[in-house]
Amino acid sequence: MKNDKEVNKQEFLFDKVNYKILLIGIAVIAFGFILMSGGGSDDPNVFNEDIFNFRRIRLAPTTVLIGFGITIYAILKNPKKSNQ
């Protein structure tokens, strides 16, 4: 029979490094969405050109895509190969 410690030992799906990379990717995605926010006008009759600036059109979506790339890498990274 197996020992009680062996039965109760829970094994995580990912390694500790994978979770760190995953959290970094999620933080980069959140930062991209923060960059995308704002730029609206309080008056609906006034058009604000700030919604078409470089930060909201190019920088923020690129940051979000980089964050998605980081999270995909964290999911696909095999911790067993790096330990050997």
Automatic annotation (TrEMBL):
At the top level, the lineage of the source is Bacteria
Species whose genome carries this gene? Flavobacterium agrisoli
Entry's Pfam families? DUF3098 (PF11297)
Give the transmembrane region(s): 21-39, 59-76
Provide the protein name: DUF3098 domain-containing protein
> Which InterPro entries does the record associate with it?
DUF3098 (IPR021448)
Q: What keywords are assigned to this protein?
A: Membrane, Transmembrane, Transmembrane helix
